[in-house]
Amino acid sequence: MRVGAESASDPAFRHWSERPLPSDYWEDFSAGARGWIANSQSQLPIQKGHALCRGPWIVDANHAPPGAGYLHLLMHIHTLEERLNAPYAREAGMYPDDFLRARGHAFIHGGFSRNLTNLLVRIRARGIMEMRGAEMTVLVQSQPDPQGPRANWVLTGQRFVLQEEWSEQELCLTADPSQWTFLGSRRDLTSLYGYVPLADVLADVNVSFIFVLFPILVEPVVAVADRHQAWAGRDYPVRENLLPEGEIEFDSVWFRYPRTTNSNV
Fold it and tell me: N or C: which end of the chain has fewer CB within 10 A?
């Protein structure tokens, strides 16, 4: 991973018309996953220097109706140190002890800003996918009040368009709520997930940043009395032929923070 290019011809940045600043978060996966997690809980596979997200993916049912629906989590990073030792992270084996001792989380231990307002999320990626109605975009999750709700917003007004060949694309994390969908909560998790205004979430994304596929169509294989109250994929099997399938490779991820007016970049 390199933050800031030594020259304009550096191959890591040749696909962009500018170079990251040291204050930008840049990951090219040349030194491994460095804190990125795949498919909700497993270690992110790195193949030939690229992050690999390969289906089938776990169905995330945390926001089942009356929430905004189901989704797949492609890969994510936690953004606050205490999340690395949270019980769910430890139980899933997300962060081995030697990783934590080495302070190997590039975003957290690199001291990058959690204020993602107007951030440009730039990726170089490719994919061979059957999307089946889903779109690839990003989710931000924050809990500004430790005793308050954890809010999830998905950027449904913008999306990445996957191609079989490498392409460079970007999304802007605008604070305009019309560009986003608030996910809400399934009926039995309302004590955990709740509403926080988008502007407050973007100002301090202190839980996680996630690349997602949303929405996904979840249908049970057999009749279920209440499919949204039961847990899709855990309490009952779902029709996999309705879900997205394929694989996506990330060559790089760049968090380009807003420049000040006197920036020379």
Answer: C
- Percent of the chain whose pLDDT exceeds 70: 93
- Residue of 53, 3, 54 whose CA lies nearest to 27: 3
Instruction: Report how far residue 29's alpha carbon sits from residue 45's, in angstroms, rounded to the nearest whole number.
Output: 10
Q: How confident is the model at residue 261 (pLDDT cuts 50, 70, 90)?
A: very low
pTM reported for the whole predicted model? 0.91
Q: 3-state SS of the chain?
A: CCCCCCCCCCCCCCCCCCCCCCCCEEECCCCCCCCCEECCCEECCEECCEEEEECCCCCECCCCCCCCCEEEEEEEEECCHHHHHCHHHHHHCCCCHHHHHCCCCHHHHCCCCCCCCCCEEEEEEEEEEECCCCEEEEEEEECCCCCCCEEEEECCCCCECCCCCCEEEEEECCCCHHHCEECCCCHHHCCCECCCCHHHHHHCCCCEEEEEEEEECCCECCCCCCCCCCCECCCECECHHHCCEEEEEEEEEEEECCCCCCCCC
Residue that wins the pLDDT comparison between 30 and 43 = 30
Q: Pick from 115, 128, 107, 148: which is nearest to 3 by CA?
A: 107
Task: With a cut of 50, say whether residue 3 has pLDDT above it.
Answer: no
Q: Answer whether residue 173 shows pLDDT above 90.
A: yes
